[in-house]
Amino acid sequence: METTVKWVDGVSFEATSGSGHSVVMDGPPDLGGRNLGPRPMEMLIMGMGGCASFDVLTILQKSRQNVTGCEASISAERADAVPAVFTKIHMTFRVRGEGLKESIVKRAVELSAEKYCSASIMMEKAGVEVTHSYEIVEA
User: Fold this and answer.
1) CB-based burial of residue 105 (10 Å sphere; 0-12 exposed, 13-18 middle, 19+ buried)?
2) Does the reported pTM lie above 0.85?
3) Are 84 and 108 found together in one domain?
4) Could you tell me which Gene3D superfamilies the record lists for this protein (predicted)?
């Protein structure tokens, strides 16, 4: 897996993935940015949320659950000192569907957290407290 990050101007950078997709990252205006895209640290938790969401949805679909929506809300805390690393990350999955079995939704979230989500597991191994919860919404 490869990516390139190219400086655009100010504190704006364009990242291009090996699969050819691009995203602009930018800093806040007080640091010379124009707020044209997410901050690099935001990209980390966005990627983590995408990774975990992919796992949860795939597991639920393979378990023949009638899923009509899946949304992950991620909240993160960072250290006050430099480097301002993540110290805590919490992901809440809101799964919508018809007749979803709570035991299967719970297991899907657990499997993502404990076995499949490389991003989440990597954060934990780096010392970040990562927690998960879920909500089921009947469609």
Assistant:
1) buried
2) yes
3) yes
4) 2.20.25.10, 3.30.300.20
